[in-house]
């Protein structure tokens, strides 16, 4: 029925339809009224015959319409440094104490149950793990969400790749390190991983027999050995508000 109805519409009438109802009718047409194809955008992956599709709103227009500014807060640190604990508390604070800001937490272990379940902990797999989550975080942030990632992400080069994808898209990327001495993280050992690593049951464990490359110039440093969870979150909330990324409700 839809096909017959369209067939009865004259070409001139069809062209005069509102923007949201007219489809492109010219093969290879670079632009129609519901999206724009960017043929200049190059694909660096294996897929062929794909074209980048733009929507009807720019990032700035979306922010104005929704009143939400997205960003990624990339929490990195040793196992046991408090990444996940801080991430959970920060997510709650943003959702319950701001004027409409949105937040979502991406946890290092959680994504390995699904999206990254095919990856192990070799240097190559860790790099791919961070690349994938960097792309996902960028998409969330582009939608206006304050995306909070909690990953050991031990290598500077991998975190720099995640940063660059955000910078290229014009999306704020805030690197946050949960900074504690190794002995503090090991004493906490909430998952018993340090004990297993020391016993030789886990190979390539960050901080024991694999390096952790600390951020050189992070946007945030959270000392979870000196402040409790609430104090750490307050510091982060104040930083985000100062940057204009959220507004704490009065």
Q: Report mean pLDDT, rounded to a whole number.
A: 87
Order of helices and strands: HHEEHEHEHHEHEHHEH
Specify the number of helices: 10
CATH superfamily of the largest domain: P-loop containing nucleotide triphosphate hydrolases
The major pleated sheet works out as: 5 strands, parallel
Strand content: 5-15%
Q: CATH first level of the largest domain: which class?
A: Alpha Beta
Q: How would you classify the helix and strand content by structural class?
A: alpha/beta
Quaternary structure state of the chains depicted = single chain
What is the helix fraction of residues, given as a range? 25-40%
Widest sheet: strand ordering: 4-5-3-6-7
Unreliably modeled segments = 1-21
Task: Give the radius of gyration.
Answer: 23 Å
Number of domains: 2
Counted beta strands: 7
How far apart the termini lie comes to 55 Å
> In the CATH hierarchy, what is the architecture of the largest domain at level 2?
3-Layer(aba) Sandwich
Principal-axes shape call: globular
CATH topology type of the largest domain:
Rossmann fold
């Amino acid at each position: 029925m839809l096909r017959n109805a369209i067939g009865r519409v004259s070409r001139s009438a069809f062209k005069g339809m509102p923007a949201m109802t007219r489809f492109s009718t010219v093969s290879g047409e670079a632009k129609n009224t519901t999206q724009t194809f960017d043929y200049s955008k190059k694909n660096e992956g294996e897929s062929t015959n794909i074209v980048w599709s733009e929507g009807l709103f720019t990032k700035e227009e979306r922010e104005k319409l929704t009143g939400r500014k997205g960003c990624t807060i990339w929490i990195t640190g040793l196992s046991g440094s408090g990444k996940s604990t801080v991430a959970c508390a920060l997510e709650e604070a943003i959702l319950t104490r701001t004027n409409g800001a949105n937040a979502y937490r991406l946890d290092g272990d959680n994504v390995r149950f699904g999206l990254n379940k095919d990856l192990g902990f070799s240097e190559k797999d860790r790099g791919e793990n961070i690349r994938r989550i960097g792309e996902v975080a960028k998409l969330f942030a582009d939608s206006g969400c304050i995306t909070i990632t909690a990953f050991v992400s031990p290598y500077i080069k991998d975190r720099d790749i995640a940063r660059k994808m955000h910078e290229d898209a014009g999306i704020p990327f805030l690197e946050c390190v949960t900074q504690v001495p190794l002995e503090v993280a090991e004493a906490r050992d909430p998952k018993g991983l340090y004990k297993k690593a020391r016993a030789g049951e886990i190979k390539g464990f960050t901080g024991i027999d694999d390096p952790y490359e600390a951020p050189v110039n992070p946007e945030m440093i959270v000392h979870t050995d000196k402040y409790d969870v609430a104090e750490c979150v307050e510091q982060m909330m104040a930083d985000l508000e100062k940057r204009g990324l959220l507004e704490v409700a009065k």
